[in-house]
Amino acid sequence: MTYRASACGKIILLGEHAVVYGFPAVAVPVAGLRAKAELAPADLPFILIAPDIGLTSALQDLPANHPLAFCVRRTAEFLGTGIPAARLTITSDIPPASGLGSGAAVSTAIVRVLSASAGRSLAPGEISQIVFDVERIYHGTPSGVDNTVIAYECPVYFQRGREPVLLKINAGMHLLVADSGVHSETRSAVDGVRERWQSDPARYEDLFRRIGALADIGRGHLENGCAQPLGITMNQCHELLRAIGVSTPGLDRLVDAARQAGAFGAKLTGAGLGGNVVALADPQDLERIGSALRGAGAVAVYRTTLESV
Ligand code: MEV
User: Fold this and answer.
1) Which atom of ligand 1 approaches the CA of 135 most closely?
2) 75, 132, 234, 281: which could join 263 in a potential S-S bond, CB 3.0 to 4.6 Å?
3) How far apart are CA 67 and CA 62, in angstroms?
4) Do the first three CATH levels of 3-165 and 169-306 match, i.e. the same topology?
């Protein structure tokens, strides 16, 4: 029998980077962008195929710290099943290295497909924990926000070391995600922030505290369905992310274009130094803002809606 599973991408609405230092963040799923895993029976050895990165390999030939291989081995260890005789194919429509959680989504899809094939239904918290272990290979020091929002696939208020708070939203929210086309590895953006924090801890801790305070304020606006004030909070967050050195002229151009075209707010999302920006807007303005983002250099623009619950 062939098993299939998938996992969503994510957007950090508020709080990236500061969340690594223990401050809160607010993140939401992007249901329409997904990583997919298909597990088909095959003879041993276990084969991993990831056409997007040109990988076809026996699991046993991949090093212990290869993220996909580690994810398979870690999941099998968690399930206590051993490695099945199978062929695992992974595809994804989430752009890699662009702040949308592609690595965590691929890992989540792998955990889900392996647990389904073992006849087990893991709780989101268990999936999140396995994916966090894989994230440590990708990032070094992940906060845990990406694996949490993707494993739960719902808006979350996240703070390291605490149970995630799953958020209910009072009114639908309409977002545009615009890709700068510049790939950026989370690890190097996070390392850069850490170096600057180490050389000026007082200034950086103040900036992190202010980013965390915006996540607290924005959480309330999100829950109450208040798009306009949430947009203002996102704008303020972008300025603080610029101050910690993770924006670029290209990202600033996209953010400005979205605001000038009528977005309630716009900011970079994820690690920055490339990747995507997110804009929050009234549904009737989305087309105009999308055109403005393309005109300002976006190589792709995605639309996503947060449904009220
Ligand atoms: C990456 O999606 C978000 C960062 O805050 C890193 C992390 O939380 O692990 C930059």
Assistant:
1) 9
2) 281
3) 10
4) no
Whole-number Å distance between alpha carbons of 106 and 7: 7
Question: Is the sign of the CA dihedral 220, 17, 234, 284 positive or negative?
Answer: negative
How far does residue 234's CA lie from ligand 1's centre (Å)?
Answer: 16
* CATH class of the 169-306 domain in this structure: alpha beta
Domain ranges of the chain: 3-165, 169-306
3-state secondary structure of 138: helix
| pLDDT value at residue 139 | 84
* Confidence at residue 53, expressed as pLDDT on a 0 to 100 scale: 93
CATH topology of domain 3-165: Ribosomal Protein S5; domain 2 (3.30.230)
Burial (CB count within 10 angstroms: exposed 0-12, middle 13-18, buried 19+), residue 195: exposed
Token digits of residue 210: 């202010």
Which ligand 1 atom sits closest to the C-alpha of 101?
2
**Ligand 1: does its nearest atom lie under 6 Å from the Cβ of 24?**
no
* Cα 41 to ligand 1 centre (Å): 36
Distance of CA 305 from the midpoint of ligand 1 (Å): 22
CB 225 within 8 A of CB 259: no
- CA of 296 relative to ligand 1 center, distance in Å: 25
CA atoms of 13 and 219, how far apart (whole Å): 9
**Which segments in the chain show pLDDT lower than 70?**
none
